[in-house]
Amino acid sequence: MKLKCLPILLVFALLLSACNLLPDAGGNPRAQASERSIWAMDTQMDLRLYGDSDGKTMAALTARLNELDRSLSATDPDSDLSALNSSGHSEEPRILRLTAEALAVSEQTGGALDVTLLPASRAWGFTTDNKRVPEAAALEALRERVGMDKIELREGVSVSLPAGTELDFGALAKGYAADVCRARIEEDGLSGILSLGGNIQTVGSKPDGSPWVVGVQDPDDAGRYLLTLELSGSKAVVTSGDYQRYFEQDGVRYCHILDPKTLAPVRGSLRAVTVVADSGLRADALSTALFVLGREAGESLWRRLGDFEAVWMEADGSIWLTPGLENLTQGDAFRVIAP
Amino acid sequence: MKTKSWILLFGAVFLILAGIVAWQYLGAKPAGSARIYADGRLVRTVDLSKDGAYRIESAEGWNELTVRDGRLAVTAASCPDGDCVRCGWRSADPPIVCLPNRVSIRFTEAGELDGVVR
Q: Which of A33, A230, A251, B67 holds its CA 20 to 30 A away from the CA of A184?
């Protein structure tokens, strides 16, 4: 009797397992998601939430992102940041928060992050459609207006700038926005994934419990991923590279990320660096600093701080990971840096 | 149960499984589509199974899209850098983004990825 039942049971077991191969078996997680795309901070933002049945959280996120855009824009003359840049003084809490983080990362990275480079960016034409190589003398003349030492921060009270010095939070604002959105999504007990102009923020867990799978774009081919990262829980993933905004003149590529030491576009062996961290603000700030530093100095920073993971993509095609990402990564050949 | 019956039974189950797998991986997939956003708003959804040409106007400029053989490309644009045109022919994410014109094109067949960091 037992022997006769066995084949029937086996058939049932095989058929049941086959059912799991069917597409959308058990419900496609994307089908339960609500999605919205908006334009803010000069970029497209794609928001996907799970469980936001009444759309309240999505509406709140949209409102917050638009508000942050108005507040932190360096080009909108009515923004809180423009008010600081024109008056030299601000007591706006989020301006203080971003300034404090910028100063902290600048100090930790030996000045690799500098949020006072707006006049130099202007000289290179990165704030306009007219990008060009400026005269060396013109850049030198800007030195008295730039530098993190120009910022006077009274923690939690105010920030002051000398006349001519301006802040630009391009290296931090999207990361800060990701933190603000994550807090709201978690507060509402939901999960989701946000792409704020290519900055990825995962929040909570996917409905089916599987990890978030994030592709890291190939700097040479926007249609290709160099590798994928499998991430659990709330993580920020941010890339800085020479391929996002740049121009070429006389066969030389000039990227939009400026080296604070030279006031010129970073000219190293790195194509891009991706940072994974718990905080969006920190991941955003660190990715810029790590790109300026280059891989070897970046590795030292990782060993010293240890509060982030990173992927370095070199011009020779080599890819380097911090050890914490090794088991979360699928992709082309990569090397793991020494702990 | 005789050996022959066993063989028949497992043969049948194998065929069913092979059929399911073949249907899933080799069978006709639904035609992909592309969603076109201008200034952050969805302005058009394009069926990639039908060849055609489209002109997208945003507040900042225009982009001309061509669909051919199941793929889409920005074939001309008013933007100064032309990054969107250089993206070439695509049928899957990552999206084609034209930052100066505030136009982006996302594909429905995004594979297994939840997001792309760039």
A: A230
